[in-house]
Amino acid sequence: MKETVVIVGAGQAGGEAASSLRQQGYEGRIVLVGDEAYPPYQRPPLSKGFLLGKLQLAQLYLKPEATYERSAIELRLRTRVDAIDRAAQEVALSDGSRLHYDKLVLATGGRARRLGLPGVDEAKLGNLLYLRAIPDVDALRAHLVAGRHLVLIGAGYVGLEVAAAAVDLGMKVTVIDVAPRVLSRVTGPEVSGFIEGVHRARGVTFRMSSVVKRLVVDPSGQAVREVVVAAGGGGEEEHLAADVVLVGIGLVPNTELAAAAGLAVHDGIVVDELARTSDPAVLAVGDCANQPSVYAGRRIRLESVPNAMEHARVAAATLLGKPAPSPAVPWFWSEQYGMRLQMVGLSAGSDRCVIRGSMEARTFSAFYLAGGHLLAADVVGRPAEFLAAKKLVAAKAVIDPAALADDTVPLASLGG
């Protein structure tokens, strides 16, 4: 009998794992199980083009649904995996059935981190929203009306991208974050200041280094009326009137299924360089996986589409007996007001930032170095330079900072 690979999670990582298995020649049965109603789709456009109605639903799909049928990939949508029986090599499904596997791939992703304020029943508040899946966009769109006030809790990618979309729709926007600067987890102070300046120029106001103390609810108990914040958590309270509140304070990896099955879990499902968990029959990929990184020299859990796709391909190769650890360097991208920000590497730990180009003209690259080695780069409006930066960061190149800052010296010529 042919082997069966069951993939839990029909997101980008799960979809890529299934497709890669077929593309790399796997001839066994593939079952892709997802609890959403949709085939694997792109999440980044949810806070950008799809939110603004520039993309239709079908354009989000990684592949048309018929493609999975042609590739003999069984899609089990609207289906949840409730438990993993590792001894029997079966998963228990929400419809009461059980599904045998020879190999299991966990691509369970993550969920939006909840605000979790004491005494707040979030389920009753129709204008307190999160953004992680297609239904969340549908709920948010109903509130995006010109002249209304959107309060965003969280100055990460999601918060800033939605801020840009809301401004384009004529809304008033306020962003709150406990951190002292925007995108503090992913970029340096120079680029944080630049991005915040772009938003301020469009009318967005910020309450940085501020803590949400409580929500004031209207008499019906079904809507937030005000968000109460305090600078530093202990300063004077400020009441911000709100028509809609969107929370974007990070992602919680979905590890409960793995933990209940006795797999090793620590800030994600622990895997080796080949995506294998503590059970050789079970692999994990994408946002839910904590993996060794050749680039970082330590274990990391990355929340990024490029990582999810690359990690899925690593898992597929492992399942086919062609193990190939990924040498990929983390990279990310964001789009705000039609301006694309591309990032490669992790800037934490850098001791110097070199700017190449012009921030004022919104075409520049920011390079982060540590001990003379290039750690990371943030690039705005220079796609060709980003490709060169990816190679240099991957090589941890040693580059003269003066040459790096000199826009007349081709970036591709450096680091040799």
TrEMBL record:
Segments forming domain FAD/NAD(P)-binding: 4-312
Can you name one GO molecular function term for this protein? oxidoreductase activity, acting on NAD(P)H
Q: Name one Pfam family in it.
A: Reductase_C
Q: Which PANTHER family match?
A: APOPTOSIS-INDUCING FACTOR 1, RIESKE DOMAIN-CONTAINING PROTEIN-RELATED
User: Quick one: signal sequence residues?
Assistant: none
Entry keyword Acyltransferase: no
> Which keywords accompany this UniProt record?
FAD, Flavoprotein, Oxidoreductase
Residue ranges annotated for the Reductase C-terminal domain, each copy included: 331-414
Q: Which cofactors are named for this entry?
A: FAD
| Matches recorded under Gene3D superfamilies | 3.30.390.30, FAD/NAD(P)-binding domain
* A GO cellular component entry from the record: cytoplasm
Please give the superkingdom of this protein's source: Bacteria
Entry protein name = Pyridine nucleotide-disulfide oxidoreductase
